[in-house]
Amino acid sequence: MSDTAPLAPRASTAETPEADAAVLVRGVTKRFGDTEVLAGIDLKVPTGATTCLIGPSGSGKSTLLRCIAFLEEATTGTIEIHGDPLGFAEAPDGGRTRLSPQSIRAVRSRIGMVFQQFNLWPHMTALGNVCEALVTVRRMRRSEAEEHGMAQLSRVGLANRAKHYPSELSGGQQQRVAIARALALDPEVMLFDEPTASLDPELTGEVLNVMRDLAGSGMTLLVVTHEIGFAATVGQRIAFLDHGRLLLDGTPREVFGEPRHPRLAQFLETYLDRGAAALV
Ligand SMILES: Nc1ncnc2c1ncn2[C@@H]1O[C@H](COP(=O)(O)OP(=O)(O)OP(=O)(O)O)[C@@H](O)[C@H]1O
């Protein structure tokens, strides 16, 4: 593996079968020390659709999402965002080549991510949180950033909370600000890592509704979630991860329909109280 300048952009992928892949994961493994957490993942996340990544605790869902966001480096394998390699590109000898930091930054900036924890700046208002990266990273004028930021807060139903500080907002509202903050950077793909996991049950609905709206607007979403009801009703693709392997990848009907894969059936039984009943 060697550090090189960015590879020349690939020939247009428009004619290839992968043309509609917003994210293409090929042969990704991830090891932490001696422990293999991802054991060779191939996944295509289609453009303009919602893909839900489900699976038991510890199966590697967050790790896969973090590899896609390049917050973790896959041990082997490659990831492309709309045909552009992120971090590593396939080398002619079948290995991979590390790309330049500039290339990594450029491709990463096309991905938005929402975490379980909201990670808002406590000393900034909701609008300040949404605008910060627009001003400091995208070099937008403050007034322009605020106009764009207000539009994003409206999108998540929080225009009337723009001047509130995080401590004055509920957990659900804070997470919606975090979503607006990610949307403000106009990402091509939005990654969600269990966005409702730290919320009280009565607050999860408002966040899931915002995500449902985004899905309905044709945005590309990849969502790690234990909300099986959401996955079954909003997800157009379901990927089921188990012990670091992608056991199932298909439409909700293909994945949840009978006969069910025994590991999925076992997993769903565990989560039946979390909305899986809505599946059948
Ligand atoms: N930085 C790390 N160092 C060592 N091990 C890690 C690290 N991050 C994750 N792991 C391990 O990798 C495995 C998969 O973790 P991961 O968080 O990806 O699973 P998950 O499916 O998202 O689980 P959950 O649903 O509980 O969030 C776990 O055994 C975890 O302990």
Q: What is the compact description of this entry?
A:
The protein has helices at residues 61-68, 101-108, 126-136, 142-155, 171-184, 201-216, 228-234, 252-256, 262-271; strands at residues 21-32, 35-46, 50-54, 76-81, 84-85, 88-90, 96-98, 111-114, 189-193, 220-224, 237-242, 245-250.
How would you describe the overall organization of this protein?
- The protein has 280 residues and is an alpha/beta fold.
- It is 33% helix and 25% strand.
- The protein has helices spanning 61-68, 101-108, 126-136, 142-155, 171-184, 201-216, 228-234, 252-256, 262-271; strands at residues 21-32, 35-46, 50-54, 76-81, 84-85, 88-90, 96-98, 111-114, 189-193, 220-224, 237-242, 245-250.
- The strands form three sheets. It has a six-stranded mixed beta sheet with strand order 8-9-10-3-11-12, with helices on both faces. It has a four-stranded antiparallel beta sheet with strand order 2-1-4-5, covered by helices on one side.
- α6 (201-216) links the parallel β9 (189-193) and β10.
- The longest helix is centred in the C-terminal third of the chain and has 16 residues, at 201-216.
- The protein is globular, with a radius of gyration of 19 Å.
- The relative contact order is 0.15.
